[in-house]
Design brief:
This protein is an alpha+beta fold and 164 residues long. It has four helices and five strands, in the order βαααββαββ. α2 packs antiparallel against α4. The chain is elongated, with a radius of gyration of 18 Å.
Length: 164
């Protein structure tokens, strides 16, 4: 028996393997939500700069939060096959974790639409993390962004999925 063709499971490829934007016009609008997380690893000294508000470029956490919100709204301009969506809510939080020397980022994005908001949530986390990096790179060169992942989604045909 032949193994299933992995390309056939990729919805953004047509039958000949060429990229395409999925046609969602026949799908019903449903309430959808996705949550993503990620972490920015740094030294205790750099984390102290961030939490004290003494980073040279200003308020790192608030700036990164705003950057994450802005990024979620622009996801379809960054990811070629993403549909532009009417986002109804975006929450981005950044929590310093002294025991791990991280800033842990969580983004939750909501919409009522024909397709989900997983990419918007992950884009929000990624850009918030990149903003933390940009604002602290003068203090530390080996900051690491890691662990960006979808942790939960709800709505749509596949229903609720919890990955963490």
């Amino acid at each position: 028996m032949a193994a299933p063709d992995p390309v056939s499971k990729l919805s953004h490829l047509d039958e000949s393997g060429k990229p395409r934007m999925v046609d969602v016009s026949s799908k019903a609008d449903t309430a959808r939500e996705a949550t993503a997380k990620g972490s920015v690893y740094m030294s205790a000294e750099t984390l102290a700069l961030v939490t004290s508000g003494k980073a040279a470029k200003g308020d790192v956490l608030t700036t990164a939060q705003i950057a994450g919100i802005m990024a979620a709204k622009r996801t379809s301009e960054l990811i070629p096959m993403c549909h532009p969506l009417p986002l109804t809510g975006i929450d981005v939080s950044l929590e310093p974790n002294d025991s791990r020397n991280t800033i842990d980022i969580t983004a939750t994005v909501r919409t009522t639409a024909k397709t989900g908001v997983e990419m918007e949530a992950m884009t929000a986390v990624t850009v918030a993390a990149l903003t933390v990096y940009d604002m602290t790179k003068a203090a530390q060169k080996d900051i690491r962004i890691s662990d960006i992942r979808l942790v939960r989604k709800s709505g749509g045909k596949s229903g609720d999925i919890v990955l963490e």
